[in-house]
Write a structure and sequence with these properties.
Number of strands: 4
Largest sheet: 4 strands, parallel
CATH class of one domain: Alpha Beta
Shape: globular
CATH architecture of one domain: 3-Layer(aba) Sandwich
Strand content: 15-25%
Number of helices: 5
Distance between the termini: 17 Å
CATH topology of one domain: Rossmann fold
Order of helices and strands: EHEHEHEHH
Helix content: 40-55%
Structural class: alpha/beta
């Protein structure tokens, strides 16, 4: 019989970090709200969460790495909103942010979840950060809890 490992379910009694970009905070605050509500639904207490605000999405990976390196932190959620403008800046920020988040996870061996949305328009960003419905912050919270659970079983 094949052994099956899954990580779905309630959160273990672990501490988590959340790194949030202040740039486009009219979106990132909604992502954070969705994330915190979902973590609470999954059984995470307020005293198990540390939220760190950074200037922009480019600053997220370094902060996430520093948080993930802490022995008391089991995983990190990264929240940001990169909205396309008229220049190549969008691509630089989005690609390097995602690559840095991946690297933080690989360096620490802990889940560092990409909850940074990248959109062409502000309306698309609003659609991915709804209070009720599609909220990528909520999805990032689910992914973190599932990954912490699954990694603890491997």
């Amino acid at each position: 019989m094949i052994k099956k490992i899954e990580g779905k379910g309630k959160s273990p009694r672990k501490n988590f970090g959340i790194v949030v970009s202040r740039f486009n905070d009219f979106i990132t605050e909604k992502l954070l709200d969705g994330c915190l509500k979902e973590l609470a639904r999954l059984g995470v207490k307020k005293n198990q969460i540390t939220v760190v605000w950074v200037p922009g999405a480019f600053e997220i990976p370094l902060t996430a790495l520093k948080l993930a390196k802490k022995k008391t932190v089991s995983g990190v959620i990264c929240l940001g909103a990169v909205i396309r403008g008229d220049t190549f800046h969008f691509e630089l920020v989005a690609e390097n942010c995602a690559a840095g988040i991946r690297e933080a996870s690989l360096i620490t061996g802990k889940p560092v979840v990409l909850g940074v949305i990248t959109t062409d328009t502000i309306n698309q960003a609003y659609a991915r950060s709804k209070d009720n419905g599609d909220n990528k912050g909520k999805e990032a919270a689910c992914a973190l809890v599932e990954m912490v659970n699954v990694l603890s079983k491997i």
